[in-house]
Design a protein that fits this description.
This protein is mostly beta strands. It is built from 3 helices and 21 strands. It folds into 2 domains: 15-36 and 46-68 and 85-108 and 246-329; 111-239, no CATH class. Strands 6, 7, 8, 9, 12, 13 and 14 form a 7-stranded antiparallel sheet that branches. A 6-stranded antiparallel barrel has the order 1-2-5-18-16-15. The protein has a two-stranded antiparallel ribbon with strand order 3-4. It is globular and about 80 Å long. The two termini are 17 Å apart.
């Protein structure tokens, strides 16, 4: 094999960057970690649990704003050593696909499921009083929701459903499996029994009906329904400018695998932000929340612009604080330097 062919494998090539997200345990602040030593188990089209494939992204940009400060000594104040200043790292990109999780990450705060409304309910921009929830029966799983022979008539193939427990005036994080919101005071959510289903990530689309159950096209992200859970139809998703809750997720971005190698950018903890540091170069500008990407005039795709700040993680191997891990997997038989 020629020297040129060997060195050719050192150029990572790829069409786009692919994004994967996984929940952070908000109560303990424990992230989902990507171990590069187990990378062989990470199939792009079938990522291991709990990683969620959010599709291809565009305009992927990472910005490090952490300064290196010199420690000066001596008569002339020469740099004798250096240390790192305030840790600050940002990332921006455009989601090319729309879904509940993509919208939640781009919006940054509580993300609402618009539950099918009672026709007589007062109008509300995030959805009014919904139709009553239907009880989920024992034996249900993340892929099958049992409701019984009578209530099954309320559903059709193609329906989107929210499956979660009734809100029972508790405070703290709420949502099965994935923290979807934080309640400071039951009065803030009007003691609404449906509130958790309004915000939960435990959603599914009905693929088929049996005599008593709903078979889902994808498993519920929050896992099997909890005892006492209810199910309600979801008509749409809505997010809001503002809100006091901040999303927090683990993220993995994979690029450059078309040439046999692979680059992985792992952020143990990312939290969405609406602006970036003024010295950062961004495409599109940080004040845009969506961007129209021309397909063929007059048709354009609408992309969700997302921006994040990286939160710190303590590496257990040496106790160092890090915000991002960049790993490179060389192509077979390529030179190492």
């Amino acid at each position: 094999m020629s020297s040129f062919a060997i060195r050719g494998g050192m150029v990572p090539l790829g069409q786009r960057v692919r994004a994967y997200f996984a929940p952070v345990n908000r109560a303990t602040e424990v992230p989902t970690l990507f171990d590069p030593g187990k990378s062989g188990a990470f199939a792009l089209d079938a990522p291991p649990d709990p990683w969620i494939d959010l599709g291809w992204i565009d305009n992927f940009q990472r910005v490090s704003l952490t300064p290196s400060e010199p420690l000066r000594a001596g008569i002339r104040g020469a740099a004798a050593a250096q240390f790192r200043g305030v840790l600050d790292a940002r990332i921006e990109f455009d989601f090319r696909e729309w879904g509940k999780l993509q919208m939640a990450l781009a919006g940054g705060s509580e993300h609402m499921n618009v539950l099918a409304s009672d026709p007589n309910a007062a109008a509300q921009p995030s959805g009014g009083s919904p139709l009553s929830a239907i009880a989920v029966l024992p034996g249900s799983s993340s892929g099958e929701v049992i409701v019984g022979a009578g209530p099954i008539a309320s559903f059709f193939a193609g329906d989107v459903i929210a499956v979660d427990a009734d809100y029972q005036q508790q405070t703290g994080y709420v949502g099965s499996g994935i923290s979807a919101a934080y309640v400071n005071n039951p009065a803030d959510v009007n003691q609404d029994a449906n509130y958790i289903r309004r915000v939960t990530f435990n959603l599914g689309r009905v693929a088929q009906l049996t005599a008593t159950s709903l078979l889902l096209a994808q498993p519920l992200l929050g896992g099997a329904p909890a005892t006492g859970a209810g199910v309600q139809k979801v008509i749409a998703f809505v997010d809001r400018e503002g809100g006091g809750f901040f999303q927090e997720w683990s993220a993995l971005f994979i690029a450059g695998d078309a040439s046999g190698g692979r680059i992985c950018f792992h952020y143990p903890r990312l939290s969405p932000v609406t602006t970036v540091h003024p010295t950062a170069t961004t495409v599109p500008p940080p004040w845009l929340r969506e961007q129209a990407i021309e397909v063929a005039k007059p048709t354009a795709a609408v992309a969700l612009h997302a921006a994040f700040i990286a939160l710190p993680h303590t590496d257990e191997n040496d106790g160092q604080i890090a915000v991002c891990y960049r790993s490179y997997f060389p192509a077979a038989m390529s030179a190492l330097y």
